[in-house]
Specification:
Blueprint (H helix, E strand, L loop, with lengths): L2 H5 L6 E5 L4 H7 L1 H9 L4 E7 L3 H4 L13 E5 L1 H4 L6 H14 L4 E6 L4 H9 L2 E10 L18 E3 L7 H13 L15 H6 L12 E5 L11 H13 L3 E3 L5 H11 L13 H9 L3 E5 L2 H8 L4 E5 L4 H4 L7 E5 L7 H11 L2
Helix pairs in contact: 2-13, 3-8, 10-15
Length: about 350
Amino acid sequence: MSNLAASNPTSVPKILLVKLSSLGDVLHNLPIVWDLRARLPDAQIDWVVEEGYVHLLEPLLSKDGFKGIDHIIPFGLRRWKKNLFKLATWQQFFAFKKQLQETQYDYLIETQGLLKSALVCALANKSNHAVVAGLANATQFSGYEPIARLFYNQCVHVPVDCHAVDRSRWVMCSALDWPLIERSNTPLFYSESFSQALVKKKIADIKKPYVLCFHSTAREAKRWSNQGWVALGQELASRGYQVVFPWGNLAEKVISDEIARQVPGSLVPPAFSIEDAFAVISGAALTIGVDTGLTHLAAVLGKPTVEIYCDSPRWKTEGYWAKNICNVGDIGSPPSTPEVINASLSLLP
């Protein structure tokens, strides 16, 4: 137990988690909610997150006897930056600030290491002896802004090569003065009952069991080759699966269309939201994707998933918590087509 909690054992700690974005980063921060709740069942746990990712946290909201996140505090920075000179923007910012300061927090756990998230901690209402914990150093291949350390009173050194889930656990355990939660303590993301109860969203024109192929990502170097996707899609189609190539913007749709033209019976679906993605992924026989948020969503939902690494280190985000996740490739070493095909077939019925 931390010194703060030990000094007042009858108090119910109030904890603020600050992980604003992006999709994969938010997902890999989810286990600390379960870690906290297992050890501090009565604590108040709130989370500040970019408004576009609120849907990722909603399944963990406390209700009907389930204790997870008590309050989600949406942060609209991405939208506000585009409208800085509009009155409505500042009204929304001050409404955010008011919500942030409604609770006096004892622990603020900032696992992003960026100035914007550190400033959220600075704005928050803190108790006199509050612990504000954040990263003391960068991990390889992750964004980090050293100036953020100025806003913490507990700077946490983490290994340079540290998985995103483990990194969040390092900061949390330091803040609460707990022994480090080891990787052998399997991280939880969403409840099994939630995953099983997901209503499978029907994609128009799906006629048979389908496989989702997330070929797109924000950084071009992380993509796997179009030729690889075509060969993979043709193999899956020959085995009776309908191959689906989602997209997030018009440039990605062009690539989806190009690949799909070469895969018999494949489908380029209409765009779908993060909220819809839960059900779309739930209905798939398999999800195959590059190192991107929607691929990680499939992995944390416990669905059969092949994660393809081409230009990012596998150790940083690989799904290590379930046997139905295959991780192939690594930074500077994209997997071969046979390697991805074999991994995919090993997870299919």
